[in-house]
Amino acid sequence: MDDVLMAEAFNLWMQDYTENPAAFEAEFNTVGQFLTDLHAGRMPSYGETQVETLKRYAARAVMNQLAAIP
């Protein structure tokens, strides 16, 4: 994933968040587990669980780029 695609994916995430923050409530509930794992010396699993989310946003970004091609 190049930087342009990554930036677009994160912009899409932010757009979704600003349009419907309640849909992201579960994300904020993961903070406690992340910190618990980190302070216990365990690798937090947040990154592993969010791979599919990032892939979905990247796929949307690709579709947006393709749609912009005349």
What's the assembly state of these chains?
single chain
DSSP helix count? 4
Helix content range: over 70%
Got a strand count? Answer: 0
Overall shape: it is elongated
Can you give a write-up of this model?
With about 70 residues, the protein is mostly helical. It has one domain (about 5-65). The protein has four helices and no strands. The mean pLDDT is about 90.
Tell me briefly what this model is:
The protein has 70 residues and is mainly alpha-helical. It is 76% helix and 0% strand.
Element layout with pairings:
Elements: H1 3-19, H2 25-29, H3 31-39, H4 46-67
Features:
mainly alpha, 70 residues, 0% strand, 4 helices
